[in-house]
Each structure stands twice: as C-alpha cells, then as structure tokens.
Design goal:
575 residues; eleven-stranded mixed beta sheet
Amino acid sequence: MANSQEPRVRLPELKLDELLEELQARIDAARGTRDRVHSLLEAVLSVGRELQLEQALRSIVEAAAVLVDAEYAALGVIGPGGTTLSAFHTVGVTEERIAEIGHFPEGHGILGEVIRHPEPLRLEKISQHPASYGFPAHHPPMNSFLGVPIRVRDQVFGNLYLTEKRGGAQFDQEDESVLSTLAVAAGVAIDNARLYEESRLRERWLRANAEITHCLMSGSERAEALRLIAERAREIMGSALAAVALPVQDTESLTVEIAVGVDAEAHQGLVLSLPKTLMGLAFSSAAPVTSDDVHQDQRISPEPARFHGLGPAVAVPIGTGGGGVRGAVLVAREAGRPVFSGQEADMLGGFAAQAAIAMELAERRKDAERIAVLQDRDRIARDLHDLAIQRLFATGMTLQSAGRFIEHPEASEPVLRAVDDLDETIRIIRSAIFGLRTRAGTADAGLRARVVRLVGEETPVLGFAPSVRMEGLLDTDVPGEIADQIMAVLSEALTNIARHAHAGRAQVVLTTDGRDVVLTVSDNGVGIPPHGRRSGLRHMAERAEQLGGRFEVSSPDAGGALLRWRVPLTRSQAM
C-alpha cells in the first residue's frame, strides 16, 4: 500500500504575524474608541448634573483635562465687553503657583486669539504663534495647545484651553472633536445652571421683599426696615458693604441712615452731596450707577476715605423717577471680585423699587392713623369747648352772682375763690384745646437739614466742602433750645476755621444717643495759637455750661484742632 500525504497549505509566517498585529491594533483602537466614547458620555452626564454654576464650570475643566489627557486645563469666562476674561478656572496648577503667578490672565496673547476668533485652535508649540508673547514669571512651561469656544444660546460664553498633552504627544483631530463635543454639552449645562441660579436668586429677592413689607406694615420703626434692606442687599448680592441713604429735607444732600459690612462705621451718618457720590448720582438720575473700582473712582469725594479694600460697586435708587425717588442703596464687593453685571443691577433696582412701594404703603397707613388721631382730637376739643367750657362758664357766672348776696365775709371769700379757680380751669382747658388742634408739620425744618444748610452756606467762605456725619434721632430727641445752641456753636466753629485755621479739610460730626448730644468739629489747619483771641471759644463753653454740658478743645497728633461740645438732653427735657 502506497504511503501518500495530501499537500499542506502553509502561509508565510511573516504575513500571518502582520495580519494578527493589524487585527490586534484594530481591536485596541476599537476598544480605545469605545472607552473614549464612554468617557465622553460620562463627562457629559457629569457636567449636566451640576446646577451650581461655579461647580459646573469646575466640572467642565476637569472633564476636558481627562478626555484629552492634558496636564493643564482652564476655562476662561468672557467679560461683558466681549474682549477680555472676567473669570479663569484652572486645573493642574497648584494654589501656591497661582499665588506666585499673580492675577489671572485677562485674555491677551494666545488666549485672546481664541476670544477674537471663536473657532478651535490647535498648536504644536505656543511660542511659534504670532500672537504669543511669553508667560509671566513662575508660570509652568507649556508647548502644545488646544483651544475650543463654549457657546451658550449662540453667544460665546468662554473658552476651554488645554496645554501639555501627557507623554509629550500632540493634540490631534480626534482630541479636537471630543473637546468640541464636550463644549456643546458644557454650553447646555452652563445655560441650565444659569437659569437655575436666576430662579433661585429671584426667589431670594421675593422673600426679602416680603420680609421688608411685613416689617413696615407691622408698624416697625423705619430704621429697622432700612437695616433689613441693607442686610438683604448685601447677602444676596454677595457684597462686603451695603448702605442706604435718604434725602435731607430741603437740601441737595443725602445722609447714610444705615451701613452694614466692611467699615460700616465710616459710612454711618455721612452726609453726601448729590454730584460727588454714587448714591447721589443714582438718586438724582433715578437710574443705576456702577463702578469697576469704587476706591479709585473719580466721581466719589476722596474725603473721608471710606472704600479701602473695596472694588466693584453699584448704587440704585429706592423708587423710580415717575413714582418719586426716596433714597439710594449701594453695595460694594472686595477688590478683585467680579464687577456687577447689568442683570444684577436690574435685580437690585427691582428690589429697591419694591421696597419703595412698601415704604409708601407704610407711610400712607401712618398718615391715615395720624388723620384719625387728629380727627379724634378735633372732636374732643369741640366737645370741651361746646360742653365743658360753657358749663364751667355758666357755673362761674352763677357763683359770681350769688356772691353778691352773701354778706358774711367768711362765706363770700370761698365763693369768689371758687370763681377764680373756675376761670383758671377755663384757661387751662382752652390751652389744651389749642394744643389738640395744633397740626404736625408747622415747626421749622429739623436739625439735620439746618446743619446741612449751614455747612453749605459756609463752604464758599472755607474754600472746600467739609465732610458731615450725623447719627441718632436728632430731629426728634434734641429740643429746640439745644438745637439753636448747636447751630450757634457750629457757625462759630466754621467761621473760626475759615478765618484762622488755614485748613484744607474739616469734618463735622453730630450724634445723639438719646441721653447726650455731641457736636465735634475738626480741621487739619495750624491749630489754636496759645496766645490768640479766645472770645469765640469762651462763648461756646458758656453755651455748654448753661445747658449743663461741657466744651473741650484739643490738638490731635496729626495737627489742626478738635472741638467737642457735649450737653445732656435729659436736663433740658426736665426743664
């Protein structure tokens, strides 16, 4: 039997290895694509779950760095002007390194290139691009670059910046596609987060308005409502300082009634001129007024210094031009914080307008209560006049007639004395009737307005406008007698500064705590000479002594003079 074998087909081993390697490479590529698609989907879902805007932006940057395997990633938010960055969120750079580098980029160089041309940009080496001009000191070295814009409702919100692909590789077309897809999802997530924050913000404003309305309508004091307005404005706007100013009667000035936050004491009670302050401009124009840096703003009077460490600020009127402006609200953030957007200013303005409506309703309610009281007083006065006085007068006439028929002196004398008592009683009742029928508002202007007017009259003589601060219930707690003395002392003090001090700055502070009233006048002039005339100072001291108070003169270390005039209110009220 013949031993025969069929021929075996043998493929070249080299060709088979190549096929197996290619197959393995395709399998690895498919797996890599699958893994990357999964990573992209996870990133999209992760970004879409965030409702807090700041956290959403952070998640976007972190997801972008992972997806394209970049060592450094950043998201720059474009500011209102559309040419610079207003915020910069980074991944890969430590906080210590950021502190060494300094202020975040504003959108120049390569970053500005993506702002000016909102299209994907890929570079093998950043330094080779014409728009590049180097990095600041302490900045980590960066070569490869990939930038992609993020659009929210067809508007460019910001840009993703990726640098230094790990392993020394370059960003490729697939990286660009993946990052562009993430940018689309990021735009949707940012839009949702902004809408959510807007709704939450509006809800907080509505709650604040309801709280203020309840405070005013429940009969609370005006100062309590103003403090509530300032506190809620500061909290909701994320500010370091909030202040509320109201107009001074019959003057072109505002006085800061309430201030809360950083250096609130420097603002409390300050009298502001309309053209030289943000609140004054907002009040006079009945429109919001913003400042990128309130500490350096030329529209604000430099004295007294009161905005140290603060930056962005916005002031809005309380009320509207058509309905009457009742005052102004100012909020300011720390230096380096984002400027107030137009939307934030509009929300604060709406809040202030609602507060003005609540103040109007509360005043109308108090007016109605006051009218009811006055009408009741009129009725009581009419009844006293028509009934009590007539009866007393008739009784007196009867006794007086009867007294003529009493011959015994000891009997007639008590009758005549009773007639005199009845006449005195009639005079007392008539005085009470006159008091009941006296209407509020017939008195002269309050002490605050008188002080502001006097300072304004003395300003041309001084050559500069003194700063004025007033605190406490000056118009209600300070009696007219003391108010007149205060005006005389203040006039004498300002006149002395104008004639003798050679000063370039002066400050007037008038305060009361319900027990004492204190007037302080200071300047930065030459001070009080030891052998000069003292008649004016002597008159001030005599006025204080007559009211049971005291008068002090001192020379501060910084130079100039300081006058302090203090008198008690209790003694005057007892008198």
